[in-house]
Design goal:
Elements lengths: L1 H66 L26 H12 L9
């Protein structure tokens, strides 16, 4: 009877140990799942913030395109006040202004007269 009792006790002890190991494995899996879930939540939140920023930028770009004049006439042109020296040529048209500004910012090479 004692051997029967010992055998039953050992079976229950083994069963308890197996259940304990299973509980440990399930806890580890749960922790791993929670960590992965929080990482995915963080990724989703960051992507949501990026979407909001891109939407704002896109709407700003659309506004600037819709409010930008398509054509500038000579009467609408605003000429900045210059402190250029008197010997620089004065430009009359918008096209000349672009050329003058390009020439003004481009280093010139001295020409030799000879």
């Amino acid at each position: 009877m004692n051997a029967k009792f010992d055998k039953k006790f050992k079976e229950q002890s083994d069963q308890i140990n197996n259940q304990r190991n299973e509980i440990i494995s399930l806890r580890q899996a749960n922790v791993s799942f929670l960590n992965a879930q929080s990482q995915w939540n963080r990724v989703v939140n960051e992507l949501g913030e990026i979407k909001v920023v891109l939407t704002d930028v896109s709407s700003l770009l659309r506004k600037s395109e819709s409010t930008a004049p398509t054509r500038i006439s000579q009467e609408d042109a605003v000429f900045p006040i210059d402190n250029k020296s008197k010997n620089e040529e004065m430009c009359e048209t918008l096209k000349d202004i672009d050329v003058c500004q390009y020439n003004y910012h481009t280093p010139t090479r001295p020409t030799s007269q000879g």
